[in-house]
Amino acid sequence: MKYTNPIIPGFHPDPSICRVGEDYYLVNSSFEYFPGVPIYHSRDLMNWRQIGHCLTRESQLPLGGVNASDGIYAPTIRYHDGRFYMVTTNVNGGGNFYVWTEDPAGEWSEPIWVAQKGIDPSLLFDSGKVYFTSNGTNWAPVRGIYQCEIDIATGKQLTETKFLWTGNGGSYPEAPHLFHIGDWYYLTVAEGGTAECHTVTIARSRDPYGPFESCPHNPIITHRSLMNDIQATGHADLVEDHHGNWWAVFLGYRYGEYSWHHLGRETYLAPVEWIDAWPVVNGGEKVLCTMEVDRPMTPCPWPAPAERDDFDASSFGFAWNHFRNPDSSLYSLTERPGSLRLTCSAPTIDDLASPSFIGRRQEHFECEAATLLDFDPTSGNEEAGLCVLADNKHHYEVAVTLRSGKRSVIVRRRIGTLIAEVACQALADGPIELRIVADKKTYRFLAGAPGGLTELATGETRYLSTQVAGGYTGAYFGIYATARGGESSTKAFFDWFDYRVSA
User: Fold this and answer.
1) Together in a domain, 443 and 368
2) pTM of the full predicted structure?
3) How confident is the model over 445-455, as a mean pLDDT?
């Protein structure tokens, strides 16, 4: 069996996985983006396709005014008695909750809230009981992992919250998962913070409440202090495949330039073997981008996603996200059939609001994003265009606006409080193509009539990296329209959007 890591590239952190027969389902964190918690399906663990989101309604996911990298934290997905359960934390909107469905590609329930505090919650269904496990930070007497039992129908806490384990000594013990495998209960924990010191540790006990003994070869996953293409490995979940083999999914990231990374934390896969009733991940060796393991798994690839979105569907594809809860009046896929209409919003992509914006993850270092824009601004405040961003304070855009009364294309760069318009060029009438070409180090910004593009400016990828911007997300390509704080009814029409992996 050969496969390539990451199995889900780009901003797909905190993976959790479950199996139903020969089908596998995986979810990731989504933070301030809406819809929330993308869900993926696979039949071979190597090839994944997105089948929807778990949180698609504002009643499930209120995100008004949340900061970048707030909102939805690490989810867990589990299957029990015909139902899928996804449990997570909205750090700004009520704490821990779960939703359920019988069809993971369909609608999920309204939130069911759980009183136990902490983040990164997980569920274990075991012998008629449901264990709810989360981490303890400033609310707990000891930083570590805590657990209670709940009524899965109502979320009611049935037992008092009990302390389980502090971890193996690393900082920020979090992301707990409790498993009952054979005669043992195993507790996995992420430690060390979600950067180069990130690790996964494990402990076991004969009882779900401990005491837990630490694995003698902890950490079971780490790339700290290793020269490797994959860094910051941690936050793992375990799954047994339909052949009886075990695997771990976990997060990590790849550097773009030097020690900066801008694609975000991605989802990786490694084999697990059990030796002396302890898990050994990838034979104790580092995990590689190109993996070959001696395991029976028939490849089941999905059709490749289309490079172009012609905006000819009745709703947005699963790859698209908004900032926070969108104002539906700002968007239309039917006003001009075959185009997406965005109305200029008062909020900009700088604001902690929901601007007229829709974006998709950058999943490859070498790629291009492009769109064909029909837009006639009526003032210098109005603009519409194509952007690449890490968050509301770190982004680049190539956009159409008015300068000195003339329709023009500009390139702007924002890096924290440093904001500069670095290119401006007058435009002829008619639609304009905007394009961003990316490699590991640089974004190039091009514009012009279709087939006649001119490069206007460049920007370094490092300034959109986590090391500069902070936070927990990754780079997005997006299209937007704004009146930059003013009132406007001016409309921008985007005929298509391309995302292509460069040869």
Assistant:
1) yes
2) 0.97
3) 95
